[in-house]
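Troubleshooting log. The previous run stalled partway through. Resubmitting the same four chains, unchanged.
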Amino acid sequence: MSDARDTLFRYLTLLQLIPRSPGRISTPVLKEKLAERGFHIDTRSLQRDLGQKLSTQFPIGCDDSQKPYRWYFDRAFQCHLPALDVPSALTLVLAEEYLKGLLPPVVVGQLTPHFNDARQLLDGMASNGLSKWARCVRAIPNGKALIPAELDEAIWQTVAEALLEQKAIDVMYLSRTSETEKPLTLHPQGIVSRHSATYLLAHVDGFEDLRQFALHRVKHAAFSQRAWQARDDFDIDRYIQSGAFGYRQGPDNVVLEAEIARPVAWLLQETPLSEQQTIEALPGSQWYRLTAQVPDDQQTLWWLMGMSTNVKVLAPSAWRETLKANAAQVLAHYQDTPDTCDMH
Amino acid sequence: MSDARDTLFRYLTLLQLIPRSPGRISTPVLKEKLAERGFHIDTRSLQRDLGQKLSTQFPIGCDDSQKPYRWYFDRAFQCHLPALDVPSALTLVLAEEYLKGLLPPVVVGQLTPHFNDARQLLDGMASNGLSKWARCVRAIPNGKALIPAELDEAIWQTVAEALLEQKAIDVMYLSRTSETEKPLTLHPQGIVSRHSATYLLAHVDGFEDLRQFALHRVKHAAFSQRAWQARDDFDIDRYIQSGAFGYRQGPDNVVLEAEIARPVAWLLQETPLSEQQTIEALPGSQWYRLTAQVPDDQQTLWWLMGMSTNVKVLAPSAWRETLKANAAQVLAHYQDTPDTCDMH
DNA sequence: AGTGCTGCGACAATGTAAGCCGCATAAAGC
DNA sequence: GCTTTATGCGGCTTACATTGTCGCAGCACT
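Second attempt completed without errors. Output:
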């Protein structure tokens, strides 16, 4: 774009081209990339920019162990333009609280520079006003927080890049059934993060069918020589709804009718089950009548199950039956084995 | 800090001082803030920087309806130094997918410039390689996603700022019980986001006890004249664990023992319930034996309830009894009202 | 040893930044 | 209605910064 001889803008472009610390970029490559963007400058100028101007003002490092020097940004550095405002910073902190329970630590770690920036800003305020933000913001996750699966940082990076740049990858995969590591060549098609585990959707080289690979069972990943095989008919939403992750779901919504206890009524008034939802008080009791259009999926059924005695489902009858059968089965479980092991 | 006469650095500082669009900053104020940071420049230079240099290269606007001109950044603009890498961008997209179901739209909206940045980067890649990132990344939330409560942007901003800068606020609050709006003066102490609703912990002016205020029931908020009342004995974690959000929890962990079905065993092997967890196959069946140290809280109990027939709890006996009683009660519910309304 | 790549110091020509001044405009005060 | 004050803006000048060029020095590879 701009071939304006603006030095400021060239500096900024330069700063944007230097990757964060695990990454590196060499001087000649930088020169080339700058040229691509319309900055045709002499190598010497670039060297001066890096070595004398930028590296004195920014946390920029230089790996001079090999001759085309490699430049990189400090791992923790982050700078936003415009600067973060207070509400945004607080939102970031909240977001981090939530995400820590949802994504593998490494993946959240990918964003630490951003979160650090927010924390720094809030800490800075704290030093004046003494508001200890860390002590006044919490996120309570939805449902039981399982511990996110461990995941190697390099693997996440490789897989993410392969998926987006449409490359095939060679992996060592620890099969769930056989407990042995197998080398595979995969053609990534999608990533699904469910609860606390993250899965790669891909098909194995030479095969046509799509399979799921838990990322934390990938032990090694590298870009492959093989060309990436496309599947243009692939639709991730259709794939998920087809039941691949245990969330089989009818194509249409169903109308849920139920009687709900007062606390549940309050909850649903504030955070509704769906856009179409009505709640009416049932005269002469603490109960309410709920009607809502909800998806016909496992999630909703689980939610109803968790509400246990606080919700009486009236329709659809299939759910009613499922819940009833479930309760009967659970009860049977516990009556089969009487409480001989009571430890009280 | 740096009184280095570096123009680049001054430009950057300047850019950081200009707020995003709802915000505005006037030229004299900018001059003052720059001086605070060690940049003592002539007003004329500042004017030139803004009007001729920056505003041609950046999406910066100027409100010249009143005489000290007011400057602001384009609402959607975001620039990171160093630029986002591909894995980070993908992580941001994933994070947004999750957060959309967890935080009020307005709060997530606070971060849209960040997410936009990521999307832009990925879109840029797509135009080359045609990898439609939007079609290959999904997050499946944990548990039933209720619709996050509506919340006004200005209210979130006011509350966040008040909390962090320790100011009291005047609000109009829609009481849950009386259905009427009441004016209150609050002294914010904390924010808790639970599931899809966000609560302000504060005490009412003149009272000592802490109360929760659902942010979506706050209809109006403004900074108050009154001085903020501190409560230095306040500990948000203790407050939550004391049961304030329906998550009463014993102080100690308990040892959960249970028999679990094969799919659950797989799930827990990948995303454990806790750090201390063992799973052993039970010979001659598809069942496994689980032992885990878990917190004694409602969440865990709910999770067990949701697993229904796939988990048979052996200990602690209190949970066993609870689950059993629950099942009995649910069953009773449905048998009280026989299936006369079956619609099949 | 020769060749090519890279980094670096020096230098001169060019370009630019920034203070200063004066003028124009608009709002506030008398 | 006129002055005062605050701000924006164009132009001028100078000191200073930027940048291409050159020469030299390591270093790797041949």
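Takeaways: Residues 7, 41-42, 44-45, 48, 67 of chain A lie near DNA strand D (CB under 10 Å from a C1'). Chain A has a mean pLDDT of 83.
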